[in-house]
Design goal:
single chain; 383 residues; Rossmann fold
């Protein structure tokens, strides 16, 4: 059996929560079938193919104009437009179209990671003979409704809704990250509940963690270039760093692209390698997640827990993560700095949360669970 997965994310050497999910999905499915994962990357000049194992390959397609357009949207208009630009203009990327046609034609299963490549659906040969999957990482319409200002809500939001609705209805099965988002998708697009399968996100759990070189008084935040993460970093720099001058705030990921600071207790690492990210996680005292808006699931929280970090988060920051309340320290924004200070001073609480966090990931967010849900769903669709 062959599967073609198409994604707008940089999936080779992934760093964002979504790209890590997509990479690991391909890796786990490749144990049972041949996987071709097509990723979008404006940072390369020519198409690149990576062979991960004998049943898993990644093909990354350059699209520099869209990357520039998305960057201009962030820096000049203060709007997250890259997703919209991918949805609107990806069919004009002839290289992407050719690769997608080739891989999807040879596939038994075609997986759309997010709705932004929904316009490529028209190029699937004999779609009735394939299983079409929409892996909905978010309810994109509701997410962008919160992100866009009035002008873009009027001009762009209807297109986003049409794109998501098209893929939701054309897919044979839709995966959602939580029961709440399953309900949202069903109500928005009139999709019967039996068509939507809840598949909570998973994270890789290191067999052993070494935290001998933890820097006392350090807090890490990981994020991609996304509006809710921008809000969080702004809060870290302008509120938390001011109130907690003795705490070193480590910010990792493409979210750093929007910020500059002269504060000595804020370190903007930017995009780093997977090895460097692991090093930062292993040497940070706690993980923080001051998220105020958004949809889907904050995979960064699971990543913190997997590496044994005690976590301070807002209630919004753990949306979609059922039964996690005992494994994290939940704080309202106005008390966030006090909660960080208290946790950093309470060694016993740190040890307790660290152990409970890893246990939570092992029991509720393993990739074996995701693998089982996908294989059972595909088997049901084939029968």
């Amino acid at each position: 059996m062959k599967v073609c997965i198409v994604s707008k994310d940089i999936v080779h050497q992934p760093i964002s929560g979504d790209s890590v999910h997509i990479y690991n999905l391909g890796l786990h499915l490749s144990k049972y079938m041949d996987v071709a994962l097509i990723g979008h990357c404006g940072m390369i000049r020519e198409t690149k193919e990576y062979v991960i194992n004998e049943h898993f390959k990644i093909i990354e397609i350059p699209d520099f104009p869209l990357l520039i357009g998305g960057a201009l949207g962030f820096f000049l208009l203060k709007q997250p437009l890259l997703d919209y630009l991918v949805g609107r203009f990806s069919p004009y990327n002839q290289n992407l179209k050719n690769v997608f046609i080739k891989e999807s034609t040879n596939a038994d299963i075609v997986v759309f990671e997010s709705c932004w490549y929904a316009s490529l659906y028209r190029y699937i040969q004999k779609p009735d003979e394939k299983i079409i999957v929409y892996d909905a990482r978010n309810v994109e319409y509701l997410l962008k409704e919160k992100a866009y200002n009035k002008f873009f809500k009027k001009v762009v939001l209807p297109y986003v809704k049409a794109l998501e609705e098209k893929l939701t209805k054309n897919a044979n099965v839709v995966f959602s990250v939580s029961e709440e988002e399953k309900s949202m998708l069903g109500k928005l697009y009139g999709v019967p509940p039996e068509k939507i399968v809840v598949c909570p996100p998973a994270i890789f759990l290191p067999a052993e963690i070494k935290r001998e070189n933890v820097k006392r008084g350090s807090a890490v935040f990981i994020g991609s270039a996304y509006f809710a993460n921008f809000e969080a970093v702004n809060f870290i720099i302008n509120v938390l760093a001011e109130k907690l001058p003795d705490v070193e705030f480590r910010i990792v990921g493409t979210v750093c692209s929007k910020f500059k600071t002269k504060k000595k207790n804020v370190v903007l690492y930017g995009f780093v390698s997977e090895e460097k990210k692991k090093e930062i996680l292993m040497t940070s005292q706690i993980g923080i997640n001051p998220i105020f808006h958004g949809a889907g699931v904050n995979v960064k929280v699971l990543e913190y827990l997997a590496y044994g970090l005690p976590v301070v988060t807002t209630p919004v920051g753990i949306r979609g993560l059922e039964k996690i309340e005992d494994a994290v320290y939940i704080s309202q924004p106005e008390n966030f700095h006090e909660t960080i200070k208290h946790l950093m001073e309470d060694v016993d609480l740190q040890k307790k949360l660290s152990a409970m966090g890893r246990s939570y990931v092992a029991n509720h967010r393993s990739w074996e669970n995701v693998e089982k849900i996908w294989l059972e769903t595909i088997s049901h669709m084939r029968n």
